[in-house]
Design goal:
- Homotetramer; dimer of dimers.
- It is built from twelve helices and eight strands.
- It has about 290 residues and is α/β, with parallel strands linked by helices.
- The chain has a single domain, classed as TIM Barrel (Alpha-Beta Barrel).
- β7, α8 and β8 form a beta-alpha-beta unit.
- The mean pLDDT is about 95.
Length: about 290
Amino acid sequence: MFSGSIVALVTPMDSSGEIDYTSLKNLVDFHVDAGTNALVSVGTTGESATVTVKEHIKIVLKTLEFADDRIPVIAGTGANATHEAIIFSKIFANSGIAGCLSVVPYYNKPSQEGLFQHFKAISESTELPQILYNVPGRTVADMLPETVAHLSKLKNIVGIKDATGDLDRIRIHREHCGEDFILLGGDDMIGLDFIAAGGHGIISVTNNIAAAQMAKMIKLALAGELDEARFINQELLPLHTALFIEANPIPIKWALHEIGLIADGTLRLPLTTLNTAFQPTVKQALLDAGIL
């Protein structure tokens, strides 16, 4: 359940900024039909930084309800305060989620020892499988491979989403964390390369809108059929690029609304809708990928 094509699911909102659960249900159904392997609910792409704690919990639970055991749901439970991350893990303990995606604490700039103690405390507070999430471009702090290796020895830390862009870390993690430690990519631009280098799957933004193509590409790549996978990836490259023309999830929400998968593309401040200067670029990428 922690491999293959996993979507970093957006959180749809209506024009007033309230959570749009009708669109959320439509998205879950879309991914089930497309062959997506799992959903990440309320991660970075799901605007975890701007929804309230009450909303965060409800979005995960509604996603589980809509999934109805048809597709695994991974809950975003990371926080920059250890006690808050523990609270999320405890709340979802018996909910039916497959596991937790827990980001490196942001803003605080913890040391490597601080990172180890943070994730150790979370691990000791729950039986739920924990996937570490290292994205130094957003958190500033970079969890080094030695720290990941130490954490991999803890009972329920099962893998990492690596969004460092450093493909050499796959080899290092494999060497020091063991063959069973799950390696998930977090960068669509090098997602196929990540699989080819030994990764188990991708937690993808592009998957929000090109779910069937991503599912097929990752399935081929994991089967070693890299030439066919590269053909699909080549078609998706303009989309991988365009969806980060502004900060994620600004472009993906605009794109989902543009093709009618969500009713509105509203984001919570301080995020604002896609700049009109960039909209033709994203629209062209959708056309090139055969989506629009």
